[in-house]
Design goal:
Chain lengths: 323, 540
């Protein structure tokens, strides 16, 4: 009898079985499993078969390959992420891995978008390739380019259906990358007028000083309501927007702010406190130096007796004296 | 001493005392303390003249002397004291508001003469007041002495240091320069003088002449041949006290501007603050950062008569003042109905900051002022943050920041990310350093006043011929009036000055007044900035 070498086929050697086992393991450890864990679970599988199975799972997009400080980790892709990828896969069956890689990088950037140079760093692909791929993806309507408001030449890429983040478009004050200064000015003046009239009515009411002072304050919520009712803004403004406008009034020195503790339930309170604003007057009149022409003179440093510009022949003084 | 200060001192000394004093004074300011012979040698003036000039300067408290080792006496000029001469009109005006004409004249005499005895001041002031009164009335010495004593009680005038009486009968060699001492309690002690008399007109009122030629001055008879009772006791104006008063005024008006817009009884908050400051006048030293705590009951008792607000309302006002974001008034305890202090250092800081803001606003525009206040409040900001907070487009914001940077109102703070300080990898933060900005502005003020004085002198010099002519004409008219000339002759003389010349004279007078007023206004700014800088340096 000849020896028949029987290759004992280990059980679970079926590739599909291996993959399913690996997927089960991944579900057991949602944070990821290392190669070592798989090896422990299925000690009878050879390294090559294991590698094949893992590669298949990766290319099918069911596993994520991550690097940790101990080594490589395989993690199950959760169903949300799996969605667009399968959609993507169904769309572009024939595209190469590079495009997939680029797409993944852009996706990871979320709604802040990513710059083309950053894509190059992350993917290590040459610039020409990147540009080709980006054009491809754009024509397929998978990604879009958004101009950033911070640097107008820079274009960031993000997924087609995502809303760009506030920091990129600038929020309510920017319309198409342009800062709307007149809009801000108008809002500025309206808020100030509102606070001024409130303070005046408080002054006219002639009651005891505590009540007068308290009634001359307006909370940010009141101002917000007033501005919304005024209807001068096409864009909907939130209370934070109004607060930034009121802050500019504070920096103009026309308004002062106090913060008081408010109960949670009261209208307009945020985290247990409210911001109150009040119109005020400056504490000193324009100071003495600026009433003389020297205070505002643009050539002050060049002026000295006997020179081209001197107090004796100063034209600013002559004009000022003729007033 | 910066160049601007030295220039200003030289202009002031020249205007008030003349060329020689100016030369000596400026030399001393430039070179510090020097002995007599070195001064004479370096300035090239004779010893006699140097001595006279130094006498004048010492009399006016502008130069002090010290005995150094080996018996050498050195003289040192006090530049800051020379600059106070700009403020003389303000001191005199304050005395007028507080003590009416009598006080005004007393302070004026003291300032113009440096040091005087009380009896000399009283006599002179009484004479001057009598001249302005109607015929037949005279000013009594007692009234003037009264005002003088009140000035001394409120510390507006003080005694000069004197040579102490030596106890031992054996005098020994006289020291090269007398050592002057004064003790705190003697400073405001008025000697018991019985000054009896009335002010005299320049001419006795018995004569029946209608007018008096200005050119002729008749000597008034001096009947007091007896020795002056308070010889050796000299008085001078106490400038620190005036400064304290100005500071209080500034604080009260700041409170009035901020708080009294919202109260129905006008000026109540500022009245309360004024009362508190008045109560702390004597008790708090002028350089203290806080006044003494005052209880609400005391304040209520000390309110001026005529302010009938109830205690409750007063308490409400005090609470409002203490809670205000200005932080001028603070509550330091609850005894006696609530103890309140006035935060002097903070008040001066706020006033100096407001001055800086006002200059930025007038010079660069209100948007720049917005950025300036923003950086002041937030202390350190990046370029991007400035644009976001101030809601100003990036290009304009950058332009404004650079303008203010080159004007030295704002400075840059570099924070490197890498040790090689590469510009692309460093944070650049904008910040405002109030002390250095205040100093810069102060320097600019000095130069501005120097410019204004120069312009005023230039204008006067330009029209010198015209001024001399008009003076001659006036003298002629006056003399003709005294000798009883006719109307027609007077008219003829007056017409020597043509109409356009008259206009020119009018313009000149107006311009000179304007420049003068402007000097005083810039001096107000100087006062605020100097007080702030002094208060900050004392705390360090």
């Amino acid at each position: 009898m000849a020896d028949v070498k029987v290759k004992v086929q280990p059980p679970d050697a079926d590739p599909v079985e291996i993959e399913n086992r690996i997927i089960e393991l991944c579900h057991q450890f949602p944070h990821g499993i290392t190669d070592q864990v798989i090896q422990n679970e299925m000690p009878h599988i050879e390294a090559q078969q294991r590698a094949v199975a893992i590669n298949r799972l990766l290319s099918m997009g069911q596993l994520d390959l991550l690097r940790s400080n101990t080594g490589l980790l395989y993690r199950i892709k959760d169903s949300q992420n799996a969605g667009p990828v399968s959609f993507f896969l169904s769309k572009m069956k024939g595209s190469d891995n590079q495009e997939k890689l680029v797409y993944q990088i852009i996706e990871d950037a979320g709604n802040k978008g990513i710059w083309s140079r950053d894509i190059r760093y992350k993917s290590n692909l040459p610039l020409t390739e990147i540009n080709k791929i980006l054009k491809n993806l754009e024509s397929k309507k998978l990604i879009k380019a958004v101009k950033s408001v911070a640097a107008s030449k820079k274009k960031v890429y993000m997924l087609y259906n995502l809303q760009p983040d506030r920091s990129v478009t600038g929020g309510a004050w920017y319309s198409d990358q342009d800062f709307e200064s007149e809009f801000v000015e108008v809002l500025n003046q309206q808020c100030f007028k509102f606070l001024q009239t409130k303070a005046e009515t408080a002054r006219e009411s002639k009651q005891n000083p505590m009540i007068q002072r308290n009634s001359s304050f307006a909370s940010s919520h009141e101002v917000w309501k007033y501005i919304c009712e005024l209807g001068i803004s096409k864009v909907e403004l939130s209370m934070e927007d109004i607060e930034t406008i009121l802050n500019t009034l504070i920096y103009d020195g026309k308004v002062e702010m106090t913060i008081i503790a408010a109960k949670e339930g009261t209208v307009g309170s945020v985290d247990g406190h409210m911001k109150l604003y009040r119109a005020v007057n400056p504490i000193i009149p324009p100071t003495g130096l600026v009433r003389a022409p020297c205070g505002l003179c643009p050539v002050f440093d060049d002026c000295h007796e006997g020179g081209e510009i001197s107090p004796s022949n100063c034209i600013y003084m002559t004009e000022w004296l003729e007033f | 001493m910066t160049q601007a200060e030295i220039k200003l001192c030289s202009l002031l000394l020249q205007e008030h005392f003349g060329e020689i004093v100016e030369k000596i004074g400026v030399h001393l300011i430039r070179t510090g303390s020097q002995p007599l012979r070195v001064i004479a040698h370096d300035t090239g003036t004779s010893l006699d003249q140097v001595k006279k000039a130094l006498c004048v300067l010492i009399q006016h408290n502008l130069v002090i002397y010290q005995v150094h080792k080996r018996g050498v006496v050195e003289y040192e000029a006090q530049c800051s004291r020379v600059l106070r001469m700009l403020r003389y009109p303000r001191y005199i005006y304050t005395a007028k508001t507080l003590y009416s004409d009598t006080g005004e004249l007393i302070v004026e005499e003291l300032l113009l003469n440096g040091k005087m005895t009380m009896s000399a001041v009283v006599k002179k002031v009484a004479d001057r007041l009598t001249e302005t009164m109607e015929d037949g009335k005279t000013m009594d010495y007692a009234e003037v002495s009264n005002t003088f004593m009140r000035l001394a009680d409120t510390h507006f005038v003080q005694r000069c240091p004197w040579v102490p009486a030596t106890e031992n009968s054996d005098p020994g060699p006289l020291p090269p320069a007398p050592i002057l001492v004064i003790s705190e309690k003697d400073m405001y002690l008025v000697p018991k003088l019985s000054l009896i008399g009335k002010g005299k007109r320049r001419r006795s009122s018995d004569e029946d002449a209608t007018g008096e030629p200005k050119a002729k001055r008749s000597k008034h008879s001096t009947d007091n041949k007896e020795p002056i009772p308070d010889d050796g006791i000299y008085w001078q104006a106490n400038l620190d006290r005036f400064h304290q008063h100005f500071r209080d005024q500034a604080i009260v008006s700041a409170v009035a501007n901020r708080m009294d817009q919202f109260t129905f009884q006008t000026q109540t908050s500022s009245e309360i603050v004024r009362t508190m400051l008045r109560m702390s006048e004597i008790t708090t030293p002028s350089a203290a950062p806080f006044t003494q705590p005052l209880s609400s009951n005391e304040i209520f008792r000390s309110l001026p008569v005529g302010y009938n607000i109830s205690k409750q309302v007063l308490d409400q006002y005090l609470t409002l003042l203490a809670d205000d974001p200005l932080e001028f008034v603070g509550k330091s305890g609850d005894s006696g109905g609530g103890m309140y202090v006035i935060n002097l250092h903070k008040a001066l800081g706020s006033l100096a900051t407001a001055t800086l803001e006002s200059v930025v606003q007038e010079r660069f525009g209100s948007r720049c002022a917005r950025i300036f206040r923003l950086v002041l409040q937030k202390k350190h900001l990046e370029q991007k943050q400035v644009e976001d907070f101030a809601m100003i487009p990036a290009k304009e914001a950058k332009d404004m920041l650079y303008k203010m940077l080159s004007g030295n109102f704002i400075s840059l703070q570099e924070i490197p990310k890498t040790p090689d300080h590469a510009p692309s990898r460093t944070f650049y933060l904008y910040t405002v350093n109030i002390l250095s900005a205040a100093r810069m502005l102060l320097h600019r003020c000095y130069k501005s006043i120097a410019n204004l004085i120069e312009r005023r002198q230039f204008e006067t010099k330009e029209n010198k011929r015209l001024l001399e002519k008009s003076q001659r004409v006036e003298a002629i008219i006056a003399s003709m009036q005294a000798t009883g000339a006719e109307e027609a002759q007077l008219q003829e003389i007056e017409e020597m000055i043509t109409a356009p010349e008259r206009q020119q004279l009018e313009t000149l007078k107006r311009n000179v007044n304007k420049l003068d007023a402007s000097e005083i206004q810039v001096d107000e700014t100087i006062f605020l900035l100097e007080s702030y800088i002094e208060s900050t340096m004392k705390r360090q």
